[in-house]
Design brief:
By secondary structure, the chain is mainly α. The chain has helices spanning about 1-15, 20-35, 40-55, 60-100, 105-135, 150-165, 170-189. It contains 7 helices and no strands. The longest helix is centred in the middle third of the chain and has 44 residues, at about 60-100.
Length: about 190
């Protein structure tokens, strides 16, 4: 019975969490804390932290965590499959429709008109991350205590390495992480 409850709960989460992992968090909280009481509010806060810091989509990480907490490894498998299933079905149906009608001018025009919107959404997310990295209180106040010049230097160095030197993005991320660890160690001495 618990496996069926896990499956149905995470099937709903997977089907209705449009907008990414952060949009899924209120749905997950409603299901696992409020409706079923599988986790406490404190444990749910831990879930959010763990889901954010582990690789992979947040909703899937959350499903795996909740499934493990509620019913062990089989529960994790059931919750994870249920969370992924709606997306798999939707993408499969979309691929079938696209394959059948890809030469249709209306479809091509519609897809072409979506490209700028996707680029705008990615740019908005990038700017939000950039602002939170550069400014302590997101007011754009150019005061010494509000602007992180160290993060600006990391950004400039990373941009230079990626664009001009065509460096591997993973290597650049690791290098920035090492620089921050060295800086933190030097400051704490």
């Amino acid at each position: 019975m618990i496996y069926l409850q896990l499956f149905l709960s995470f099937l709903q989460i997977g089907a209705f969490s449009f907008g990414g992992g952060y949009a899924a968090m209120p749905l997950i909280q409603e299901q696992v804390v409020t409706l079923h009481g599988w986790l406490t509010a404190d444990t749910f806060a831990d879930l959010v932290t763990i889901a954010e810091m582990t690789p992979g989509p947040i909703a899937i990480n959350a499903a795996t965590f909740v499934g493990t907490q509620v019913a062990g490894v089989p529960g994790a498998v059931v919750a994870t499959i249920a969370c992924v299933l709606p997306s798999c079905l939707f993408v499969t149906l979309l691929a079938m429709v696209y394959t059948r009608y890809r030469d249709l001018a209306l479809l091509q025009q519609t897809l072409a008109s979506l490209r700028p919107a996707v680029v705008a959404m990615i740019a908005k997310a990038g700017m939000a991350i950039l602002i939170s990295a550069f400014f302590a209180d997101q007011t754009f106040r150019l005061a010494k205590d509000n602007v992180s010049f160290r993060m600006i230097c990391y950004f400039a160095a990373a941009l230079f390495l990626l664009r001009k030197k065509k460096a591997n993005p993973i290597l650049v991320m690791v290098l920035c992480g090492i620089c921050e660890m060295l800086f933190t160690a030097a400051v704490s001495l």
